[in-house]
Specification:
The complex is a heterodimer of chains A (about 110) and B (about 110). Chain A is mostly beta strands and about 110 residues long. Chain A is about 0% helix and about 50% strand. Chain B contains no helices and 11 strands. In chain B, strands 2, 4, 5, 6, 9, 10 and 11 form a 7-stranded mixed sheet that branches. The chains are: A mainly beta (about 110), B mainly beta (about 110).
Chain lengths: ~110, ~110
């Protein structure tokens, strides 16, 4: 089983749509969870950390289910500028707290 | 907004040559990292560095790799004898000491080994 698994997409959605990305992770010892976005041939940029109680940042909402080892990201009212690859990222656990494991990413294209 | 910087943006080298990739982490960050991304593949952890020593490294980070903080601002990755399969984008990142250890990435150095 892959350490971090994401639906690769692509997701093509119209402007204004709501889109949801899902991710599962295999290491139950993971303690830190993130969503990054990556534009083509650019660096990963931190979108948001994901907390156990769920958290929201503007149009973006992240949820974590530790029991199911499942993370989600919801984007509301999507914009053209949201087009990117969304990376689900987890740390490797208490012994490797700062070693991040990346998913392969889900590609999003927002269409005019 | 403070950011991680990396030089050069693109490095072309011949197989067997040594390369040094340079990074300037965010100034108040204490943890530094190198990751790589082979074209079309996912980002992979190489090494983390804290208090002038390696704190974690992956299986990829073998004896041909080394890291150094030669002064108060720079953080370098050296590849001693490059191989074709070392061709990748190399990202430097840095983070503060606090959980959840949010890591901020530099723009990367594209390394091409011919």
């Amino acid at each position: 089983r892959k350490e971090v698994e994401q639906d690769p997409g692509p997701f093509n959605v119209p402007e204004g749509a709501t889109v949801a990305f899902n991710c599962t992770y295999s290491n139950s010892a993971s303690q830190s969870f993130f969503w990054y976005r990556q534009d083509c041939r650019k660096e990963p940029k931190l979108l948001m950390s994901v907390y156990s109680s769920g958290n929201e940042d503007g149009r973006f909402t992240a949820q974590l289910n530790r029991a199911s080892q499942y993370i989600s990201l919801l984007i509301r009212d999507s914009k053209l500028s949201d087009s990117a690859t969304y990376l689900c990222v987890v740390n490797r656990g208490s012994g490797s707290a700062r070693q991040l494991t990346f998913g392969s990413g889900t590609q999003l294209t927002v269409l005019p | 907004e403070p950011e991680v910087t990396q030089t050069p943006s693109h490095q072309v080298t011949q197989m067997g040559q040594e390369v040094i990739l340079r990074c300037v982490p965010i100034s108040n960050h204490l943890y530094f990292y190198w990751y790589r991304q082979i074209l079309g593949q996912k980002v992979e952890f190489l090494v983390s560095f804290y208090n002038n020593e390696i704190s974690e490294k992956s299986e990829i980070f073998d004896d041909q790799f080394s890291v150094e903080r030669p002064d108060g601002s720079n953080f370098t990755l050296k590849i001693r004898s490059t191989k074709l399969e070392d061709s990748a984008m190399y990202f430097c990142a840095s983070s503060e000491a606090l959980v959840p250890y949010e890591q901020y990435f530099g723009p990367g150095t594209r390394l091409t080994v011919t």
